[in-house]
Amino acid sequence: MGTMIEFDRADHKARARGYLANTQRADAPGVVVIQEWWGLQDQIKGICDQLAADGYHALAPDLYNGIAVPYHDPDAANRAMTSLDFIDATDNAVRGAVQYFKSQGLKTGLTGFCMGGAVTVIGSVRIPELDAGVCFYGLPPAQAADPAQVRIPLQGHFASRDDWCTPQAVTAFEAAVTAAGKRVEFHMYEADHGFVNEQREAVHDAVSAKLAWARMLAFWKQHLG
To answer: How many whole angstroms separate alpha carbon 69 and alpha carbon 42?
Structure first.
């Protein structure tokens, strides 16, 4: 089990809060975990705990500053997400979390789910300290992150029945990255948006989630160690 901590934002104008789960090996790599549009739910904290069990320090910054939206209220989740300044959050809270690990001399990856997947892609363009990223069913608009500017190894996991981060959007993003002479590793699953989240029984797909997790761990091992 982890604990809530404070860390410096990258602009040093304020402190940010997040959930930190440490693994046993002090010099193990770090992974920054970005929430869904529901906020820093226990499910996201559980992702951090599982990463720690699998050998990685994990830190999930609280981008909603203590607000966690109930799963039955997507309208509230949408309002919370649309009120978030994605660029500021990426450049300062998320980058600050990355710098928390980098200041310890650790290789660091970034992963996120839904809204957090979009933040992961923005981070893959805007956060210079990152070593690798893994995106789960979320892509930002091109004006927030030019696919041609992805600067790190990037893996993605997407759902064939997703009406938000659609297969068409995934194909277009992958084509744009490829056209720029870069490579991404994308996987598509016969599943619904949010399929990793075991707290949402209507969309959770245990088989797809297990496969995506295994692929992510292999990717981290390749790029983080």
So the answer is: 11
Task: Taking residues 136-150, report their average pLDDT.
Answer: 95
Say if residues 31 and 2 touch (Cβ distance below 8 Å): no
Residues 92/32, Cβ–Cβ less than 8 Å = no
Domains and CATH numbers, the chain: 3-223 (3.40.50.1820)
Residue pair 124/133 in contact by the 8 Å Cβ criterion: yes
- Residue 25 burial by CB count (10 A; 0-12/13-18/19+): exposed, middle or buried? exposed
Provide the whole-model pTM: 0.97
Spatial contact of 4 and 21, defined as CB atoms under 8 Å apart? no
Q: Enumerate residues 6+ apart whose C-beta is below 8 A from 159.
A: 137, 165, 188, 189, 191, 192, 193, 194, 195, 208
pLDDT for residue 186: 97
Please state the φ and ψ torsions of residue 181, each to the nearest 5 degrees: 80, 20
Tell me how far apart the alpha carbons of residues 60 and 152 are, in angstroms, rounded to a whole number.
Answer: 20
At residue 171, the pLDDT reads 97
| Whole-number Å distance between alpha carbons of 54 and 195 | 20
